[in-house]
């Protein structure tokens, strides 16, 4: 009764002084906005960034956030404000610092949106640093060749399948109508086949069927686009909310879409687990299981690698291929180096990864491809420790208050004219071979390696991705000559959640032995 009377009295006062109450709420809001504005006012950026996140959200909605980060970094410098509580940096030393200094943690608003299951984290979405480190320790061995003994052999089978698909269906020959192939789509089939085979020992067989089996590729891309939309609207939390989140999130009960993809993946995993005691395979799933990753956690980690491991590698291969095919001298020099190595071969079948890693020009092409066209342009924000932190940008100290969200401007980092020269926006692999300043070359290499992240946040799939890229480029250019079929518009492009979704990359392929 006393509580009821008190509540009625409060409501009466509010009703009686509703104008004053409204003014008070507006004043509190304005004061909080002003406080937020001045909190980071010492960091350059567009005037509106101190007051609103709307321009940033708009760039995400338009699927052009990566370009927004690049443009704003070029205009305002290597540390730039993009929101009331958000900054980005294109300075590699800052990003290394943020990823190594204790106290920084992943930003919840961003990484929770990266969950692929309802209210269940994986190693990428986990914002709790201790939990992330514990999970990473258990699954890291599965990505190495030491425990995943079938890794290189698995990649080889899919490389052969890709070459066979081209020879049997898409090879153009003299005195016949030209055949064209959507290389973007076939590359996605390749990376999906590889990661499924590496992850749980069964390939989807997309290259064998030349088809998006069960619409897995489409489902993955649709999931990224939906996540991107929710993030732009600042509604990513809604998908994880009680009750309503369960209705919005994909489910294994779904007949189509990402949920159907989850169901099929979990079925593969369940079959393996049922026979775990007698299964002698030495692949990623077996390694995870051996190190104590079981049940729902096992399913989450395998599913996450299926999504992340496919799109990122596909982006790297597509970007590198477009730039090589657009630069004839590079394609010619690559093939000359490949021919010289192949003439002295001591192997049968697909080129060993170790051989390609020792090819100077090929490695220069791959590094330049990753530099000019980074396959992952995620913001990857971290929260500054509670007490704040001082970073150094171009020799100047900059204080970041505790709780500030700091992300990376990847494209601006890799297109820095101070480091790469006036032709930083040009694809020129020779820069990696002709640079005489060894200290500068070491810095270029160190920054290039940031493509895969840094420290304990580095991409676990890096060894698999590098193997796919090295082997595929070697065999593509050893066997075939390539040309872009529609140079006036080489492909269709969008970017969702920092990953490039590319289609209609039409190419003409001819046999070099013809």
UniProtKB/TrEMBL annotation:
Coiled coil: none annotated. Heme binds at residue 459. Keywords: Heme, Iron, Metal-binding. One of its GO terms (molecular function) is monooxygenase activity. Gene3D superfamilies: Cytochrome P450. Its cofactor is heme. The keyword RNA-binding does not apply. The keyword Methyltransferase does not apply. Pfam families: p450. InterPro entries: Cyt_P450, Cyt_P450_E_grp-I, Cyt_P450_sf, Cytochrome_P450_monoxygenase. This is Cytochrome P450.
